[in-house]
């Protein structure tokens, strides 16, 4: 890469370029802080070569959760790597200053130290950052916050994020969404948990969102939380004014069993069973299908299992947080399972999304000369694919016969 493309920012050195791996060029961060996870990308100039550092940061429990670095990356490869590492976060990238980027990495490493968590491999490359005295003033933090968050666009979004941050023990997130005040009574959560579902109901006497930011709106919520495999339901009252929560009161949380939690979260599963044709043989057709998936979906993750590969297709944004009924699993559009047997399973909770995924793959496969034949469409009252993944079956067709046999008894 031509070093003339780089513009080194003038100013006081925060970290010695030699120690940091090169002179600072630019940095960016995902606007996903309210989801509890952010990505940081730092670009340096190392003797005319590009040096890219990617940090995956969990702001709640795990701190610096992953780190990868690359020398001499082309722009197209940089974008591919950003999608691979951070595409599932459902956010976009915003530029930040060197000081802001280093602060986020330093702050995350402090979580690792506090929780006694091992730092990701490659620590020698970012040790100067975590051993620095980098800090931000309150004014600087206020400038950084909107760079790593998306604007609040509705009461539902504000409420869901606020309760999510509360369950996660994220005091900074709660404060940014509400501010301190006597009308906020937080949940007594000792360790970070997960908001699995939140159902919002507007009070009859409260104003609607269309009445503007000067009108206070009142709501009630029923929230399902996972606190380290201890499931709790809690009812609460919440008021918002503009983009701030002004009141939060809750009843005593009620512990429920995992079975009761699964009933609350249960949804039907739509499933399409298909088979790869014989136009290509063995591993060739499987590899061709994998390449096809990577070219079609920009927010894709792939996991390897004994039976084959599991592809999860995520939303390109976090708009599911704007819904009246928020569910954690709504960040996924669908799942595609490719078996070594050549079978393909499309699965998900929303028929519209599964049909769109299937149609995209079918159309692209025809253009690429990959034969795919649909053999069955199903609707199950509860998730079935996860049962197959946990089973000892290698072929999904055999698993289908097995569960259908159980239903016929």
What class do helices, strands and sheet pairing give? alpha+beta
Give the helices and strands as they follow along the chain: HEEEEHEHHHHHEEEEEHEHEEEEEHEHH
Task: Say how many strands there are.
Answer: 17
- Which regions contain 5 or more consecutive residues with pLDDT less than 50? 1-11
How much of the residues is beta strand, in percent?
Answer: 25-35%
Radius of gyration: 24 Å
- Helix percentage: 25-40%
* Number of helical elements: 12
Euclidean distance between termini CA atoms:
66 Å
Shape: globular
Mean of residue pLDDT values = 88
Sheet bearing the most strands, described? 6 strands, antiparallel
What distinguishing features does this structure have?
single chain; 409 residues; alpha+beta; six-stranded antiparallel beta sheet; 32% strand
Written account of the structure:
With 409 residues, the chain is of the alpha+beta class. Helix content is 32%, strand content 32%. The chain has helices at 17-20, 75-86, 98-115, 123-130, 138-144, 155-167, 171-178, 258-265, 282-296, 351-367, 385-390, 396-408; strands at 23-30, 37-46, 49-58, 63-71, 93-96, 194-202, 216-226, 231-241, 244-250, 254-256, 269-276, 300-305, 308-314, 325-327, 332-339, 343-348, 372-380. Strands 6, 7, 8, 9, 10 and 14 form a six-stranded antiparallel sheet that branches. The protein has a six-stranded antiparallel sheet with strand order 12-13-15-16-11-17, with helices on one face. Strands 4-3-2-1-5 form a five-stranded antiparallel sheet.
């Amino acid at each position: 890469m031509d070093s003339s493309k780089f513009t080194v920012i003038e100013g006081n050195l925060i970290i010695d370029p030699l120690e940091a791996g090169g002179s600072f060029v630019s940095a960016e961060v995902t606007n996903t802080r309210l989801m509890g996870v952010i990505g940081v990308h730092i670009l340096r100039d190392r003797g005319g070569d590009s040096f890219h550092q990617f940090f995956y940061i969990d702001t709640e429990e795990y701190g610096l959760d992953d780190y990868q670095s690359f020398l001499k990356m082309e722009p197209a490869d940089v974008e591919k790597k950003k999608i691979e590492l951070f595409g599932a976060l459902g956010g976009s990238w915003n530029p930040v200053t060197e000081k802001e980027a280093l602060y986020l990495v330093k702050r995350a490493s402090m979580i690792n130290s506090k929780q006694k968590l091992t730092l990701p491999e490659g620590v020698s490359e970012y040790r100067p950052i975590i051993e620095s005295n980098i800090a931000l003033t309150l004014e600087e933090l206020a400038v950084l916050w909107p760079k790593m968050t998306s604007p609040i666009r509705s009461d539902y979004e504000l409420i869901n994020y606020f309760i999510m941050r509360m369950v996660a023990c994220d005091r900074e997130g709660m404060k940014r969404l509400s501010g301190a005040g006597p009308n906020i009574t937080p949940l007594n959560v000792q360790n970070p948990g997960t908001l699995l579902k939140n159902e919002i109901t507007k009070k009859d006497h409260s104003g609607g969102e269309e009445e503007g930011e000067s009108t206070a709106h009142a709501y009630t919520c029923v929230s399902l939380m996972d606190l380290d495999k201890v499931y709790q339901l809690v009812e609460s009252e919440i008021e918002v004014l503009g983009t701030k929560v002004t009141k939060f009161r809750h009843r005593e949380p009620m512990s429920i069993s995992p079975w009761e939690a699964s009933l609350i979260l249960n949804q039907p599963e739509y499933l399409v069973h298909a088979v790869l044709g014989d136009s290509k043989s063995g591993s060739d057709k499987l590899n061709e299908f994998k390449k096809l998936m990577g070219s079609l979906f920009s927010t894709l993750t792939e996991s390897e299992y004994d039976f084959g590969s599991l592809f999860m297709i995520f939303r390109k944004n976090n708009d599911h947080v704007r819904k009246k009924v928020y569910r954690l699993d709504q960040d996924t559009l669908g799942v595609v399972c490719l078996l070594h047997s050549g079978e393909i399973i499309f699965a998900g909770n929303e028929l519209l999304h599964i049909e769109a995924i299937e149609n995209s793959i079918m159309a692209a496969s025809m253009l690429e000369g990959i034969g795919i034949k649909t053999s069955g469409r199903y609707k199950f009252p509860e998730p079935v694919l996860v049962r197959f993944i946990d089973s000892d079956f290698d072929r999904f067709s055999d698993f289908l016969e097995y569960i259908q046999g159980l239903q016929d008894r």
